[in-house]
Amino acid sequence: MSKKEGKGLKSFNKGFQVPDTYIIIFLVVVVAALVVAMAQGIMQVLGGSDPTTPTVINTIMYNISNALSGVSGAVAAVLMYLFQSIFNFFVVSGTGQAAITMPIMAPLSDLLGVSRQTAVVAFQLGDAFTNLIVPTSGCLIGSLAIAKIEWSNWVKFMWKFLGVLMIGAIITILIAVGIGF
């Protein structure tokens, strides 16, 4: 057997990592699906299909809108963005996050004088950039593990760039509010 053939046989064993990768991806998708299903279940328990019916979700929206009633639409939209950015640490799945928060954010934006489009922009930007550092992201942690980079070192490397992205996101949201998007 030549050296070339030996290398091929040795590298063949590494091919068994591929099924493990598919299993990990499958589990990530299953977790995301479960988060969406649980969010729908929570919304069923809390109510929220009719804004005139007394339900838990309507009480939450009413109290949040009262607390934020004195702020401008621009401040409310930025607060929505910051909330989504923080919430992304707990629910990394964009679909799961949308299923949980948008049933609250959409009517809340109506009450605060922020367009629903701007609320969606705040959600999208809040879900996007923090994915670069959230330790609960299987995709990020898997990528860092493959690259042999510790998460703490990654955060030290990324925090300034993330700050620039977040400032850009806030400017984008302020422009969206300013032009009535």
TrEMBL record:
Subcellular location, record wording: Cell membrane
Domain of life where this protein originates? Bacteria
Under the heading InterPro entries, the entry gives: C4_dicarb_anaerob_car-like, DASS-Related_Transporters
Which is a Gene Ontology cellular component entry for this protein?
Answer: plasma membrane
The question of whether Ligase is a record keyword is answered with: no
Chief place where the protein resides: membrane
Keywords linked to the UniProt accession: Cell membrane, Membrane, Transmembrane, Transmembrane helix
The record's section on Pfam families has: DcuC (PF03606)
Q: Which residues form the signal peptide?
A: none
Q: Which residues cross the membrane?
A: 21-40, 60-82, 89-108, 128-147, 159-179
Keyword check for Nucleotidyltransferase: no
The annotated topology with respect to the bilayer is:
Multi-pass membrane protein
Q: Could you identify this protein by its name?
A: Putative p-aminobenzoyl-glutamate transporter
Which taxonomic lineage does the organism of this UniProt entry have? Bacteria, Bacillati, Bacillota, Clostridia, Lachnospirales
